[in-house]
Amino acid sequence: PGLLNVIPSERTRKQELGEVLCSSPEVAALSFTGSTDVGKLLYKQCGDTIKRVHLELGGNAPFIIFPSADLDRAVRGAMAAKFRNAGQACNAANRFLVHSSIYGEFLERLSGEVEKLRMGNGLEDGVDMGPLVNDRAFDRVSGIVDRVGGHEVEVVGRSRSDHHPCPFYSPSILSFGSNSDVPIFHEEIFGPVVSTWSFTEEEEAVRLANSTRYGLQAYIFTRDLSQAWRVAEELEYGMVAVNEGVISNPNNPFGGWKESGIGREGGPGGVDEFTEDKIMCFGL
Q: How many Å apart are CA 97 and CA 180, to the nearest integer?
């Protein structure tokens, strides 16, 4: 083997290849970026050889907006955190939790920006967002949205971009008010759909944010620095962005808590995932 080895595989044989990599004693470490369900399977398969495992898995990021927040900045942050790469990012904002006193105003401002989004070929001037990765991704996002039909929900915003065929999915905003008892609250959307809920107390926002098996990233918007520190410490997430819609940086350790993965990418600690410590003691 050389420094870098690429092993092509047909999609139909991916499970077979994964089993070989996980079970082989020649493989000292395994790094995987993908869904939590697949990550759990690989984690189990690596157990027999006790190999080092690094997993960067799913997310269900809360985007919390408190009454003191700069709404213009919050809207800009929301657009960046939700719609980059058409929402296909593990750390994309997934659940928007907005204080009831500013809930309506935030939705109105965000809707105005969403309606301006233009879909199309990303190489063309003026295009803001491209398609989902394939038809299967389109069907998955459509299915998630379709399942909220039996619940009280209001569509408050949708892109007015020219019609595009599948797998382009029109950016949308769904308002659930204070009802978090809906399936979409617990699902990683992985698409350009904004789901919003209202809250009244800080403790309620933290409880809603933490009520998920994921713990990759969270977003907070507030002018109250004490509140920012307090809430950030209470959130069960590996990364917390305060008044910022984009947190990723090669110098920062990237990774989550709970079922969002094990280990970190980026920063000095990212190298440690692929090294072993050794102590040598010399008697002189």
A: 10
Query: In Å, how far are 37, 55, 60, 250, 271 from 263, measured between CA atoms?
Result: 17, 7, 18, 15, 10
Q: Look up 90 and say whether it is catalytic.
A: yes
Please give the DSSP secondary-structure letter assigned to residue 109.
H
The per-residue pLDDT for 155 is: 79
The 10 Å CB-count burial string (b at 16+, else e) for 183-202 is: ebbebbbbbbbbbbbbbeeb
* CA–CA dist 85, 69 (Å, integer): 26
Q: How far is residue 261's CA from residue 57's CA, in Å, rounded to a whole number?
A: 5
pLDDT reported for residue 150: 67
Task: Give tens-digit pLDDT for 173-224.
Answer: 999 998 888 999 999 999 999 999 999 999 999 999 999 999 999 999 999 9
Q: Is-catalytic flag, 154? A: no
Cα dihedral sign for 205, 261, 244, 172?
Answer: negative
H or E stretch covering 270: helix 267-272
Residue from 73, 36, 40 nearest 58 by CA: 36
Residue 41 three-state SS: helix
Statement: the pTM of the whole predicted model exceeds 0.90:
yes
H or E stretch including 144? Answer: helix 135-146
* Set 56, 187, 188, 202: catalytic member: 56
Question: Contact at 8 Å (CB) between 215 and 225?
Answer: no
- Sheet of 29-33: strand order equals 29-33, 52-56, 261-262
- Point out the catalytic residue in the list 16, 26, 46, 90: 90
Which residue is associated with the tokens 């077979």? 16
